[in-house]
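ok, trying the design again with the full structure, not the truncated one.
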């Protein structure tokens, strides 16, 4: 295409071109007679339209990964397993004490001693491992419970996960703060049953901590009899630990509205039982028939006459 030699801003008498205004449809080809306008015809395509059909649906954003997700989801199972392992450890300690009693009068076969020692060591190690895993899982469950409860109240948990972890996992400190954390949840939700369960668990938790500390100190004894008594006391400490694990499971399920076995807790309503009402006023009975109506007897004639004579005497006196 050649450009015009005249400048763009040249006057009209020096331009060698002119502007021509035409209608927008000046290039529309003539349609055969009887053909509907293009706007009224149904569009046709040589192939199936594919716009929008190949677009994949929007994917939901990936849920944020929880640092203790697996252990948190398995907190209840870990607590039940921990209780079972501590019961096994208590039985192992009782078996060792029975071996010691037997050894007072008779020699014990080396294989029996080895089996008893192996059972005690393995049960103790597994109990500590499961107790640690259950503590971490319970911590994650506590964090989720607090976040959910505060979200229901339209608030935000004032305690960060680090503060909760410090109060629940640090020895000696964890004898106080877990009970406070759980009590805050029960107070915010206003559930008296959860509050009572938390108090029972808290008392057992403190007692269990004291018993565990005493069992550790008992191992430093020098006397053989004291060491033998320490074996029996260790069995008692393991039994207390199993009870505490079960109580912890009970508290978590009570907060969730379930019982110890995980069944939904049914609501109960207590009603005041009263004696049947005794009417003070005799109720009105419907009237009887003419036959059943009471019959009246006429007064004797001499009584009426006496009344008439008195009236006549009164009139005469006036």
């Amino acid at each position: 295409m050649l450009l015009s030699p005249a400048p763009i801003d040249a006057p009209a008498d020096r331009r060698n071109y002119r502007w021509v205004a035409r209608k927008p449809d000046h290039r529309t080809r003539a349609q055969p007679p009887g053909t509907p306008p293009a706007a009224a015809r149904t569009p046709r395509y040589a192939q199936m339209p594919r716009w929008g059909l190949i677009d994949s649906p929007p994917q939901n954003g990936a849920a944020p990964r929880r640092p203790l997700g697996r252990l948190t989801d398995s907190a209840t199972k870990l607590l039940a397993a921990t209780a079972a392992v501590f019961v096994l450890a208590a039985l192992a300690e009782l078996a060792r004490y029975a071996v010691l009693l037997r050894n007072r009068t008779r020699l014990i076969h080396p294989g029996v001693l080895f089996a008893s020692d192996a059972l005690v060591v393995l049960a103790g190690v597994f109990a500590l491992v499961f107790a640690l895993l259950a503590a971490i899982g319970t911590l994650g469950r506590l964090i989720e419970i607090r976040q959910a409860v505060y979200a229901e109240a339209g608030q935000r948990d004032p305690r960060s996960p680090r503060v909760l972890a410090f109060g629940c996992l640090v020895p000696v400190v964890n004898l106080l703060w877990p009970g406070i954390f759980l009590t805050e949840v029960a107070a915010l939700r206003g559930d008296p049953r959860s509050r009572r369960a938390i108090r029972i668990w808290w008392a057992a938790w403190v007692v269990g901590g004291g018993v565990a500390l005493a069992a550790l100190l008992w191992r430093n004894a020098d006397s053989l009899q004291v060491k033998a008594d320490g074996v029996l006391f260790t069995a008692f400490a393991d039994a207390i630990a199993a009870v505490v694990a079960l109580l912890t499971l009970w508290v978590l399920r009570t907060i969730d509205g379930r019982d110890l076995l995980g069944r939904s807790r049914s609501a109960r309503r207590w009603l005041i039982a009263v004696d049947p009402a005794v009417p003070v006023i005799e109720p009105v009975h419907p009237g009887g028939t003419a036959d059943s109506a009471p019959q009246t007897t006429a007064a004797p004639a001499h009584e009426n006459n006496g009344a008439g004579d008195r009236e006549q005497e009164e009139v005469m006196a006036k």
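Keeping the full-length input from now on. Residues 296-303 have pLDDT under 50 and may be disordered.
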